[in-house]
Each structure stands twice: as C-alpha cells, then as structure tokens.
Automatic annotation (TrEMBL), chain A:
The lineage of its organism: Bacteria, Pseudomonadati, Pseudomonadota, Gammaproteobacteria, Oceanospirillales. This is Amino acid ABC transporter permease. Residues 159-348 form the ABC transmembrane type-1 domain. The keyword Metal-binding does not apply. It is found in: Cell inner membrane; Cell membrane.
UniProtKB/TrEMBL annotation, chain B:
It comes from the Bacteria. It comes from Vreelandella sedimenti. InterPro entries: AAA+_ATPase, ABC_ATPase_HisP-typ, ABC_transporter-like_ATP-bd, ABC_transporter-like_CS, MetN_ABC_transporter-like, P-loop_NTPase. CDD domains: ABC_HisP_GlnQ (cd03262). Pfam families: ABC_tran (PF00005). GO terms for cellular component: plasma membrane. It is a peripheral membrane protein. It is found in: Cell inner membrane. Keywords: Amino-acid transport, ATP-binding, Nucleotide-binding, Transport. Belongs to the ABC transporter superfamily. This is Amino acid ABC transporter ATP-binding protein.
C-alpha cells in the first residue's frame, strides 16, 4: 500500500511555538511555580546588580592623586590609578618601564598572531615565540647587555611577574606533562616507576610547600657558590608541580584513544614516537583541550602563591600597596581590581578553548 | 629488507612468505595458540576460520607482532621475527593489515590516511605519496572521497580506504582480520570485491573471515582452528564438501546451516 502519492509541502509551525514570546513562556513562565521563581530571581538580581553598579561606577571617584580626592561614597579608583604602574611592573625602576613595555607589546603581538586564524606563518611564529622571544625578553628585562642597566629579578613584579610565571609554567608544563604521561603508560618498568613516583610526589605536596622548600631549603643543600636566583627556583617549582597535574590530564586523554589507532599505526611500520606524535597525541590533545585549559587557568591563579617567598606578583603588590599608610582603607578597591585583572585573563583563556574545541571538532567525528 | 618481487601466483616451494614453526602463546595462564605450524608461500591465499575465541585473530596478529608469541619461531619474508624493535618495524613495513573496525585515523582525511605511512616511514616526498595514494584509492573505487574524513564515510567505504592505506606501503603480504564482520550486509560485497581483485593480482593473503563464499572463490587453502590449534587444513573444495574432523563438520553445519 502506498500512503502518499505526492510530496507534502513544508508548512509553517503552529502559532505561539516560535519567537521570543513563546521562548519566554516555555522557559521562564512555564506554570505558576516557575513564574514565581523567575520573578524572585529577577528581584535578587536587581538587589545585587544595582548597588554594585552604583558603587563601582556611578558613585565612584576616578581622578585625583591623593585620598582627599575620594570624597564620594562609592569606590575610590584613584588609589588604583595612582598605583597602576606599580601594579603592572612591581618595583621595576620607572625610567626602565619602556623595556618592560616592549616585552609586553611583543607578548601581546605573539598571542594575537597565534589566536587570529587568518594570519600566516604560524609555525615560524611558534618557533620565534619559543626560542627567540624568551631570549629577547630576558635581555630586555634583566639587562646587563648592550649598555642596558641591570635590573635584578627581585625588583620584577606586578602583572609582569604574574604573566612571566604563568607563561613559563604553561610552556614548560605541557611538554614535561606529555613525556610523563607517556612514561607512565610505558611498558618499561624503570621509566614507568620513575614517572609514577615523580607524578605522585609533586601532586601530593602542596604548592606552598614546594615554593617554600625551593626558596628556603634548597640553598641549604646546594653549595653556597651555586646561588640560583629565587625567581628561577620558583619557576622550576611551579613548572614541575603543574607538569604532574598536566601529566594526569594527558594520561586521561590518551586512555580515551582506542587501542586500534596505535595498532593500525604500528602495523604500518611506524616507530613509537611517530605513532604517538602523528596518530595518538593529535587526537588525544584535541579531546584534552578543556582539561589542559583548566590546568592552565589554575596555574595562572596559583602564581599568586609566590607571595610567600617574597616575590610580588599582581596580588602581592596590591596587598603591599594596601598597607601604605597614605592609602589605608581601600582594600576592597585593591582586591576588586586584582580579581578583575585575573578574571579577564582566565575568562579569555576559557573562551579561546571553547572556540578551539568548536573549530577542531568539525568533520572529525568518529 | 626483502625485495618485493613481482606479484605472480607462481608458488615455487622454496619461496616462503610466512613461516610459523611450533608457535605457542599464552595470555597469562590461558594457552591461546598451541603448536601452530603454518607455511604460506608467496602468492598463496589462505583463509582462516573457526569459532570465536579459537585464536585465529591472535594467530595473524602474531605475524606482525601486534601480539607476542612466547615459544616457537616466526619468519616473515626470510626474516626471523625477534624482540628487536628495528626488526619488528622492518617486518611490519612489508606486512599490510586490515582490521575488523577499520582503525582509520579520524583526525586525517582519506588522502592523508593513505599518505602518512609512505611519507613518514618510507620518507617519500608528499607529491609522490599523494600520487601513490590516489592510484590505490582509484583501485578501491573511492578516489572521489579523498578529501573527506573517515567519519563521513560508510563502513564499507572506510574498509576500502583501510585496504588502500595498507597497499600504499607495497606490502609483500596482506593480513585481514575479519574485514567484513563489522559491516552492514549491503556493504560486505563492495569490500569482498576489492579483496577478490587483490587476490587475482597475486597478492599473498591471510584472511580471518567467516565469508565462506569468499573462501570458496579465492582461497588456495582453508585452515580451521579450534581452541588454539589448527584442526584441519585443506583446499576449499574438499574442505567444504568433505570435512575430516568432527569439529570442522560441526562448525560448518552451524555456519552454513541456516
């Protein structure tokens, strides 16, 4: 039996099932109880948002150079304004700010270049960012070469230090994490045992302890002529700590790749490293983007802990500024500013990772 | 490295492609392969059948060392298979394998799937590898899908790509591990057609399969395995018409009886 001889033309959906009004009715006012909750939610939102805006923008003081300029009831952004350069550069000498600015600009340029898909030469840019840029940044920031006066690392601080710690930590932790994850899955007992012990040790100790040990205990064991810079010690501690976490994220991703992928690559005669580098890792890394970015974000925020070994990152320098007797009583503004800067960076990373996931997922469905 | 001789169906007795002498394998305590003795001449087509769990997949996976055997000797193209990684990779380069679940690389396009091994293992320039890949994709009648990703193809198409991917390495022998078991019925034929053509061109083939029609048309020998042992081994005509052992008779009645 044939049901329909002719094709049925497409008919419009019934009235009231599409459009904004239908959406509101379906999602927010779907029955009396839900309507009450919606109204209640809107009221709570009103209670929270309006005073915040009032405090942060409408009643706030923006310009001036001392606390006397903060006469209004709202936030005193004058404090942040006056201390802004310190928040950015720490105790870096102000006549040398231009050097830090060049590094900042290059850093921003590299990030933009990598993130904007249209721009070419990504591979060369990566090489530049990994090999040449660190040297330039070191020479500029540290000085001592080409008639640039030396600025020792204990004067580095603020956002500059935060970004430095975070980017070195991320760039170091990813490859070490990959090697550790592969090692932990290896069949070779010595390699495997080493990786397991390494990961479990660094994962089981709080970061504060590691930083503290790196700064206080390590010099006791090392010969006194071998004086490793405190910043370097903090960087090593941070990187190794994060690489242990990264290793576990990556191991999780590797486990999700079917064994048949490695077998197919092996059957084609590929060596272990080619199998991993060309077949398994590219697939695993794609799946691990959320986990990796999550680790990066937590690393970014963990950099604030270097405060306890006397390095002044963004939060550290804000806190130091709060104890300045001329600016007592503006801790809320200081913390809000620090929180906002951290949030901007972390949120950008999160959005970029979502974009990457969408981009890499097209047409690759298994 | 053995030279890939011209593919002829000439089966001179000294020209052995795969030799398995008294091969034994255990998974823990479980004895999966028991005293396997098998010699495959160049150009010979072998079909391995048997109930599930009889060790047929394990048998062919030992040939390219995807599984390790514990006792006995395996020689592929005159080279004894040892623990040495270099030797294993050398043997794998001359042994193609097609899997039940295709195992195409989902992050690479069809063309890239076929190019990756010639480019990275045999160090061929990209142009040459792509030309080679297109030639084999043409042969398995899927060249028009070269830019697609495996996930966009049907099972039968994916399996044909997997065959082309193996052929791009110019293997001396092809192993098929239940190549049609994961396919919908209407797609089995397109894969079998490609395999029959390959057999007619003189490729040395060892196929684990339940496609008895395929066995009857192309196999030089059919091997029946049960509980890790080769129970019976014969040309297809006597194997199907006059099976010797009771277990073979039972197996054949079960798979042909419906």
């Amino acid at each position: 039996m044939i049901h329909n001889k002719e094709t049925i033309p497409q008919r419009p959906a019934p009235k009231g099932t599409i459009g904004p009004v239908a959406w509101l009715r379906g999602n927010l006012f779907n029955g009396p109880i839900n309507s009450i909750f919606t109204l209640l939610g809107l009221y709570v939102l009103y209670l929270l948002v309006v005073p915040t805006i009032q405090w942060a923008f409408i009643d706030a003081d923006w310009v001036g150079d001392s606390r006397e300029d903060c006469s209004r009831v709202g936030a005193c952004w004058v404090f942040v304004n006056a201390r802004f350069s310190q928040f950015m550069y720490g105790l870096y000498p102000s006549e040398e700010y231009w050097r830090a600015n060049i590094v900042f600009a290059m850093f921003a340029g590299i990030i933009a270049w990598m993130v904007i898909p249209r721009l070419p030469f990504k591979r060369w840019m990566t090489l530049f960012a990994l090999l040449i840029f660190p040297v330039i940044a070191y020479v500029l920031l540290h000085g001592g070469y080409f008639d640039l006066p030396r600025v020792s690392t204990h004067r580095w601080g603020g956002l500059m230090l935060t970004l430095l710690l975070a980017s070195v930590g991320m760039i170091g932790a990813l490859p070490i994490g990959i090697v550790l994850a592969l090692g932990r899955r290896s069949n070779m007992p010595i390699v495997k045992t080493f990786c397991v012990i390494f990961i479990e040790f660094w994962r089981g100790v709080p970061l504060i302890t590691i930083l503290f040990m790196a700064s206080v205990m390590l010099p006791l064991f090392l010969p006194s002529e071998l004086n490793v810079d405190r910043l370097i010690r903090a960087l090593i501690g941070l990187t190794l700590f994060q690489s242990a976490y990264m290793a576990e994220v990556i191991r999780g991703g590797l486990q999700a790749i079917p064994k048949g992928q490695d077998e197919a690559a092996a059957a084609l005669g590929m060596t272990y490293w080619k199998r991993m580098g060309l077949i398994v890792m590219p697939q695993a890394l794609k799946m691990m983007i959320p986990g990796i970015v999550n680790t990066f974000i937590s690393l970014f925020k963990d950099t604030t802990l270097v405060m306890i070994i006397g390095l002044f990152d963004l939060l550290g320098i804000v806190q130091a500024a709060l104890s300045d007797s001329r600016w007592l009583g503006f801790s809320v503004e200081g913390y809000v500013f620090a929180a906002f800067v951290f949030w901007i960076f972390c949120f950008s990373m999160s959005r970029y990772s979502q974009y990457l996931e969408r981009k890499l997922n097209t047409g690759h469905k298994r | 490295m053995t030279q890939a001789a011209t593919n002829t169906s000439d089966t001179s007795t000294s020209d052995l492609m795969v030799e398995m002498h008294n091969v034994n394998k255990w998974y823990g305590d479980f004895h999966v392969l028991r005293d396997i003795y098998l010699e495959v001449k160049r150009g010979e087509r072998i079909v391995v059948c048997g109930p599930s769990g009889s060790g047929k997949s394990t048998l062919i996976r030992c040939i390219n060392h995807l599984e390790e055997h514990q006792k006995g000797e395996i020689v592929v193209g005159g080279l004894p298979l040892t623990q040495d990684v270099k030797r294993i990779e050398q043997i794998r380069r001359s042994v193609g394998m097609v899997f039940q679940h295709f195992n195409l690389f989902p992050h690479l396009s069809v063309l890239e799937n076929c190019c990756i091994a010639p480019m990275w293992v045999q160090k061929k320039p990209r142009k040459e590898a792509e030309a080679l890949a297109m030639e084999y994709l043409e042969r398995v009648r899927i060249a028009e899908q070269a830019t697609k990703y495996p996930g966009q193809l049907s099972g039968g198409q994916q399996q044909r790509v997997a065959i082309a991917r193996s052929l791009c390495m110019h293997p001396d022998v092809m192993l098929f591990d239940e190549p049609t078991s994961a396919l919908d019925p209407e797609m089995i034929k397109e894969v079998l057609d490609v395999m029959v053509e390959l057999a007619e061109e003189g490729m040395t083939m060892i196929c684990v399969t339940h496609e008895m029609g395929f066995a009857k048309t192309v196999a030089d020998r059919v091997i029946f395995m049960d509980q890790g042992q080769i129970i019976e081994e014969n040309a297809p005509e006597p194997f199907f018409n006059n099976p010797q052992s009771e277990r073979t008779q039972l197996f054949l009645s079960q798979i042909l009886g419906h």
